[in-house]
Amino acid sequence: MERQAAALLEKGRFDEAEAKYRQLLASGTASASALVSYAALCGRTERFDAMVPLLQRALVLEPDLPEAHLNLGVALRRQGDLAGAIAAYRQALQLRPHNPDGWHNLGLALEAEGKPNEAALAYRRALQLRPTSPATLTQLAGVLAG
Q1: Rounded distance, CA 108 to CA 15, Å?
Q2: Is residue 95 part of a domain?
Q3: Total number of domains constituting the chain
Q4: pTM (two decimals)
Q5: 116 exposure class (CB count in 10 Å sphere: 0-12, 13-18, 19+)
Q6: For 59-94, what is each residue's pLDDT tens digit?
């Protein structure tokens, strides 16, 4: 059932994928990766409040899953919990330090929290890993222009 849900998600059939993920949750057989995928589906539909418990449950199953920490950071930032988001991003980066998306997202949270110098460092690290990212270049320019 987990593979079916993932295949439906990949095809953009979100309602059907969500039904499969709900079945997995109800059966108690959802793996950490299925929970992360379901949370990502919730993120695509901007249901960030639904993401948090799914990702927390995934982290109970696999505490060292970088994607779960990264997505938890996204959900928390979108809910306005900047301190929680920063902690989640830092945990994700501790587990996978060469992730430019993690550094970019950390920069966004630090910038929103009013820490432009720390945000600039995070953006610079993201650019070391992905030098041509227009989004990161724009964010860094904005922080530096401050």
Answers
A1: 30
A2: no
A3: 1
A4: 0.92
A5: middle
A6: 999 999 999 999 999 999 999 999 999 999 999 999
DSSP three-state, residue 132? coil
Q: Closest Cα to residue 78, out of 41, 38, 51? A: 51
**Exposed / middle / buried, residue 27 (Cβ in 10 Å: 0-12, 13-18, 19+):** exposed
- The domain in which residue 33 lies consists of 1-71
Calculate the alpha carbon distances from 41 to 1, 32, 118, 122 in Å: 16, 14, 30, 27
Residue 114 neighbours by CB under 8 Å, 6+ apart: none
Predicted confidence (pLDDT) per residue in 117-145, tens digit: 999 999 999 999 999 999 999 999 999 99
Q: Within its chain, how far is the Cα of 102 from the centroid?
A: 8
